Amino acid sequence: MSNEAVIVELLGEPKGCPVRFTCPSDTSISKGTILKLSDARVVAVGTTPTDTFAGIAAHDKDGSDSSTEITAYTKGIFDLYTDATITAGMFVGMSGSNLVNQATDASISGGCLIGKALETSAAGTPETINVAVGIY
Q1: Given 29, 47, 73, which residue is the final one in a domain?
Q2: 89 falls within a domain
Q3: Degrees (nearest 5) of the Cα angle 3, 17, 11?
Q4: Which of 48 and 56 is assigned the larger pLDDT?
Q5: How far apart are CA 100 and CA 30, in angstroms?
Q6: φ/ψ of residue 4, rounded to 5
Q7: Residues 85 and 127 in one domain
Q8: What is the mean pLDDT of the chain?
Q9: Which of 31, 43, 70, 82 has its CA 20 to 30 A from that of 24?
Q10: Among 58, 23, 46, CA closest to 93
Q11: Which residues form the domain of 54?
Q12: For position 50, what pLDDT does the model report?
């Protein structure tokens, strides 16, 4: 996968507030992938604005290792990739695989938030911005 989230600073205690989730054994997930909650403590790769944010993969998960668990960071400041206009201080949601945009009213009311933008970005300019992850 590309455009994975990069840790700037892990917050909370323990750092990053890691949570263990279940995932299919045949699924490969790269460290830094934005994950969606797909069932009771089951995660998958997040891809759409209506996905419920679960966390950011804390480690690589190999699809051939038979493992059915992955840990996700749920609190921190991360560099997240965007090509949309996002204003600092606004809520951020998913808009594609490892891609974020400014949250809409529907994503806010639907619980699909990732966090709050700490920087501003311009449309059409692919870049990473700092996002405070963990707005619940």
Answers
A1: 73
A2: yes
A3: 75
A4: 56
A5: 17
A6: -60, 150
A7: yes
A8: 93
A9: 82
A10: 46
A11: 6-73
A12: 87
Determine contact, residues 16/58, Cβ cutoff 8 Å: yes
Given CA atoms 16, 20, 21, 26 in this order, what sign does their dihedral have? positive
Q: How much is the pTM?
A: 0.93
Q: Are residues 84 and 67 in the same domain?
A: no
Amino acid identity of residue 110, one-letter, is G
Q: Assess whether 81 and 69 both reside in one domain.
A: no
Q: What's the full length of the chain, in residues?
A: 136
Q: Which residues contact 57 (CB under 8 A, 6 or more apart)?
A: 29, 30, 31, 32, 33, 35, 70, 71, 72
Give the SS3 label for residue 90: coil
Domain boundary among 25, 57, 73: 73
Cis before 24? omega within 30: no
β-strand pairing of 99-102 with 53-57: unpaired
* Domain count of the fold of the chain: 2
Distances (CA, A) of 66 to 7, 69, 99, 107: 27, 9, 28, 34
